[in-house]
């Protein structure tokens, strides 16, 4: 049995990566219309219809949700459209009044947006749960946060025509990503019209006749139509009865599990964002698959968390796999960096100032490629393919020996021969 209190499909399908990617595609037509003129096309002034996009998105999300529900039925899964909570090591209580006994319980409730910082007027903000379905397009949008959700929506709405201000606590966006990618993205966001304000957060929000007045921690004030709070997510474990059943949670509220996804209670397991390990949909899917193989298939499957590819769907986008430059320097004695930046071929006729940046991080002693980081068109697609090479231990010499595909941006990955930097750890 599976219990779901909202809609079948989870955050990714309903209000996460699927609708987000659809909105990313919508936003990129602004650049496409501009580029077309450089290639001889006369494009009439474009008009964007927010409600049409929202309705089209909802139709696709509903279609996917129905497919997921049908697949559960075909697989013999009983579905309870009800909130569930843990009533004991092998007992589940449903909000429809039923109590279910089960030999094994799997917690896969994901994560939910944080409502931080706790300031006067916080109740006037929206999160990524609500932004897809706004009745009116926000002409003035304040984005609070500097993580991947924040920068993706800042990029989307700026290209759809909003005036976007993004404030964040850190000194730059995308903490935890490679430093050069962070710098290139910040420049691109600014060029797209996003007003980036580092080291600043809202201190108070007041509703006005025309929207909201936001006072910032540096004393400045903004008049906006919507405030998107994207300051992080927390494991969705509140009110599930886990602690009462003996399940140990960490300080963030995540279910603590071992390599087999088993919690402190032997009959209760957890996978996905609720464990707060690597919070990505494909990771959750792989963890769920391994759980099924172990518990019901008699196989000793574990999940390999090395070389997980990641994309940030800004415009241009980020694709990354493996160690950042700083992570590699912390682990290896000699680290070689190969990097390049160039103007994409498409931009030569369109006249846009877009740039592509690529970096290869290499263990200077073994020549093994430790990480590849790309900023540019279809970077996410490249990261997926590169993850295969890095996972099987490709060396820089293997990249160099691979024939280039010309003309393409990706050929730079196999023609990048000149070392940019060498870091040698002091003995």
Describe the structure concisely:
The protein is an alpha/beta fold. It has helices at 10-15, 17-38, 50-74, 148-160, 179-191, 281-297, 325-331, 345-350, 379-391, 396-401, 412-415; strands at 2-3, 79-80, 84-88, 91-94, 99-101, 105-107, 111-113, 140-144, 163-168, 195-198, 202-208, 211-216, 221-224, 226-229, 233-235, 268-270, 310-312, 317-322, 334-342, 356-363, 369-376, 421-424.
Give the SSE layout:
Elements: E1 2-3, H1 10-15, H2 17-38, H3 50-74, E2 79-80, E3 84-88, E4 91-94, E5 99-101, E6 105-107, E7 111-113, E8 140-144, H4 148-160, E9 163-168, H5 179-191, E10 195-198, E11 202-208, E12 211-216, E13 221-224, E14 226-229, E15 233-235, E16 268-270, H6 281-297, E17 310-312, E18 317-322, H7 325-331, E19 334-342, H8 345-350, E20 356-363, E21 369-376, H9 379-391, H10 396-401, H11 412-415, E22 421-424
Helix pairs in contact: 2-3, 2-4
Structure characterization notes:
This protein is of the alpha/beta class and 427 residues long. The chain folds into 3 domains: 2-113 and 234-297, FAD/NAD(P)-binding domain (3-Layer(bba) Sandwich); 122-231, FAD/NAD(P)-binding domain; 310-424, 2-Layer Sandwich (Enolase-like, domain 1). It is built from 11 helices and 22 strands. It has a 6-stranded antiparallel β-sheet with strand order 17-18-21-20-19-22, with helices on both faces. Strand 17 and strand 18 form a beta hairpin. Helix 2 (17-38) packs across helix 3 (50-74) and helix 2 crosses helix 4 (148-160). The protein is globular and about 65 Å long. 34% of the residues are buried.
